[in-house]
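Exam revision sheet. Question 4 asks you to relate a sequence to its structure. Input first:
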Amino acid sequence: MPASIEVALIQDQHRGSADANLASIERQLDAAAADGAQLVLLQELHNGAYFCQHQSTDEFERAEPVPGPTSERLGAVAKRLGIVIVASVFERRAAGLYHNTAIVLENDGRLLARYRKMHIPDDPGFMEKFYFTPGDLGFNPVQTSLGKLGVLVCWDQWYPEAARLMALAGADVLLYPTAIGWDSNDSDEEQRNQRQAWLLAQRGHAVCNSIPVLSCNRTGVEPDPTGHGPGIRFWGSSFVCGPQGEYLAQAGTDDPALLRARLDLQRTEDVRRIWPFLRDRRIDAYADLVKRYRD
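Answer key, structure tokens:
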């Protein structure tokens, strides 16, 4: 494992089609690699609009197999540029069986692994349970040439159990492709609170596990396809933080951004020596964590 990693996050907006989105991504991958990036994280469901604002069987036409067109196209870019890419795919596993899937592409172009989103939301504007089957691959970091990547997806970022299990399996970094934003009907105060909660939850995972976190969100306004709802204003704010939750880089809320940072992987060891959370866990007293609720 290298002592440090140069990372990049591509925060982007929907550009009208999968080809347009992927063309934009490829241009930014070229720019990131030219600037020294070794690992690049893309946002959730980056090939198209965030279609989960409504329920329509037509949207299943967006799905593709893995391996498939996106993994092959981005795998070729990973090989050409010599970078590791973490991407996001609407996976068609079988007829009527679909997942929200992150894929990890090695710097030689190989598809190393996939992670199927485990926690699936069902809220106004985020009707993902209609489309996605909960993941069944568990919380297993992916061994790459740059270390072990703990890849999770969006709604997973609210669950400390997911982050902890990745850390307990030796993840060197946590990565979250994300699509989250505001409902314009909410007050300014509520919108501020939601964004801050999102930032704090993920920084908390960094602190409590003493590992860096990368979170890449969408930006831009996407209308409700039905015309009945207010649509979503994705709040961007993609960021990289270190093992004490310290910001290493952060994007704005409203514009595409190519975010760059350097991760010092030795800091995890240094921080864990002074804050030995893993040492002091009372694993003999946590059995009730597997219950839904302690009645």
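Marking note for examiners. The first strand starts at residue 4 and ends at 11.
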